[in-house]
Amino acid sequence: MSFEINGRLAEKFETQKVSERFQKREFILEIKSSGTTGYEFVDLIKFQTTQDKCSLLDQYNVDDMVKVAFNLRGRKWEKDGQVSYFTNLEAWRIEKTQNETSEPAIEIPVQENLPDQNAPFPSQPPENDSGIDDLPF
């Protein structure tokens, strides 16, 4: 599943060689948003790139405003009878954004066959053709 989010590149780290066949590079994206109370919230979110995507960060500087396309990944890990679960945000594309004052946005893929989000909420439930209330409570 693929997502996109805009934010400020707050920190980037060097590439780590985890094994002979695997390398990763992590970076931090700062996301600012305003709540309904008027307060500004700041989230610092860690992403990672892997293998040949580690070089994606080379052309960007800390404080650059960027759009990150990423996949959400989850894994199970067992050692000495202990089970742990990990979630990673794996970036696969990074683009510099021009508008530094825009509200950060996350784009979530839309699933088909969902009800229209802009349709008005009905004031009355639909009528039952048989006239019998079939609800169990």
What do you see in this structure?
The structure is a single chain. By secondary structure, this protein is an all-beta fold. The chain has one domain: OB fold (Dihydrolipoamide Acetyltransferase, E2P), CATH 2.40.50. It is built from no helices and 7 strands. A hairpin with a 2-residue loop joins strand 2 and strand 3 (22-34). The two termini are 38 Å apart.
Radius of gyration from CA coordinates: 22 Å
- CATH top level? Mainly Beta
User: What characterizes the major β-sheet?
Assistant: 7 strands, antiparallel
Strand portion: over 45%
Describe, in short, the structure shown.
This protein has 137 residues and is mainly β. It has strands spanning 2-12, 16-19, 22-34, 40-50, 65-79, 82-96, 106-107.
Keywords:
single chain, 137 residues, mainly beta, OB fold (Dihydrolipoamide Acetyltransferase, E2P), 7-stranded antiparallel β-sheet, 7 strands, 52% strand
